[in-house]
Design a protein that fits this description.
Layout (H helix, E strand, L loop, with lengths): L2 E5 L2 E5 L6 E2 L2 H14 L4 H4 L2 E2 L3
Antiparallel strand pairs: 1-2, 2-3, 3-4
The structure holds zinc ion.
């Protein structure tokens, strides 16, 4: 389940498995699927992650 997070003016989506944030639910879902299936993140997916801190 991808979490929808509201951060200031933008909406972010969190991968429940690794905790990375994405600007679109599509990438968060991709990441979560990959994380659960492989037990780790794919660099091809995490490069789309958004830094929030
Ligand atoms: Zn992930």
């Amino acid at each position: 389940m991808v979490y929808e997070v509201k951060s200031k003016s933008r909406k972010l989506y969190e991968c429940e498995s690794c905790g990375l944030f994405y600007g679109t639910g599509k990438w968060a879902q991709k990441c979560e699927d990959y994380c659960y299936q492989n037990g780790s993140c794919s660099p091809e997916i995490t490069k789309h992650a958004v830094r929030v801190y």
